[in-house]
Amino acid sequence: SGWQELDLDLDGQAEVMSQGEIFGLLFKPSSGGGLIELDYYPLLRNLTDVLSRRKESYHARKAAGANEGKSIHEIAKELPSGAERLFRYDWHRRASCLDHFLHPATTPENFQNIDYREQGDFVNKPYEFKINGMSLSLFRDGQVWMDGERVPLSVQKVVIPRDGEILVRYTIQNGSDQTIDARFGSEWNFYQVPEEWELGATGVRLVKGTVILEAQPRPEFWNFPLQTLSQSEKGYDIIHQGICLLPNWKITLPGRAI
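Request: output the structure for the sequence above.
Response:
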């Protein structure tokens, strides 16, 4: 039990792991301080085993609508209904516990379609970390864009695994003299088929209610299915990879008193 530091994927950067009786956690500080694996031992499942949406060579051919250079078998393959919306690709790994700072006017549709501007530099940037007993502290002194200027901002998230529970506590501090208005969101991605999860009044129930994701103060819970377009011998298929959840809040951080 407890936290241990190791380079599990042999990329020269440290990961941090905790294994309890119910949950196993693997954080990657070098990539947004993100949670890249959440194991749920009672069902022997990694709940965060999702694929990011990446561009494939056959996407370009279908998006262009051209048949030049394709075999008769490829020409016969048609896109399923609604597949055109899948020609959008993730700019970061679909990990969890990732920290977004969005413009207050950003909508759920903007976020799903990657049609928004990230105002912070936290999602895929390195975090420092410190292990203190049973808690893991991940922190970054970064910046947000406000009215065309870079404004200093720091984020700390403290992760505390307990019996049957994982607590993540955020502290966000404005390092400037000006007020920061933004929408802060903590992104979570789960390998769940539609019948396994539901959004309730107080949070999201996963694995048919076995695991519950809650947040305080009560956020807006944005969500959308993670889907990819795959090519097979029979044609093109829309593959359900999981769900993306973004509990988020409109926040106002006053500047430091002069």
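The longest strand covers residues 236-253.
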